[in-house]
Amino acid sequence: VAARLPMVPQGGRTGLAGGAVPLVPGSVVISLTRMDGLREIDAVGRTATVDAGCTVEQLDAAAGAQGLTFPFRIGSGGSAQIGGVVSTNAGGIRAWRHGGARQLVIGIEAVLPDGTVWSSLRGVRKASMGPDLGQLLIGAEGTLGIVTGATVELRRQEETGPTAFVAVRTVEDAVALFSALEAGGGLDACELISQAGMSRLAGMPGAPPLPLGMDHPWYVLVEWAGTTTDGAGLLEPAEALIVDGVMAASEQQRNDLWRIREMHGAACRRAGHPRQHDVAVPRSAIAAFMAEATNVARQRAPAWQPVPIAHIGDGNVHFDLVPRDAGSSPAFDCELSASIHDLAHRCGGVFSAEHGIGAARANELHRLMPPGNAQALAAIKQALDPHGLMNPGKVFGSLA
Amino acid sequence: VAARLPMVPQGGRTGLAGGAVPLVPGSVVISLTRMDGLREIDAVGRTATVDAGCTVEQLDAAAGAQGLTFPFRIGSGGSAQIGGVVSTNAGGIRAWRHGGARQLVIGIEAVLPDGTVWSSLRGVRKASMGPDLGQLLIGAEGTLGIVTGATVELRRQEETGPTAFVAVRTVEDAVALFSALEAGGGLDACELISQAGMSRLAGMPGAPPLPLGMDHPWYVLVEWAGTTTDGAGLLEPAEALIVDGVMAASEQQRNDLWRIREMHGAACRRAGHPRQHDVAVPRSAIAAFMAEATNVARQRAPAWQPVPIAHIGDGNVHFDLVPRDAGSSPAFDCELSASIHDLAHRCGGVFSAEHGIGAARANELHRLMPPGNAQALAAIKQALDPHGLMNPGKVFGSLA
Question: Which of A283, A380, B16, B184 has a Cα at 20 to 30 A from B228?
Answer without folding.
Answer: A283
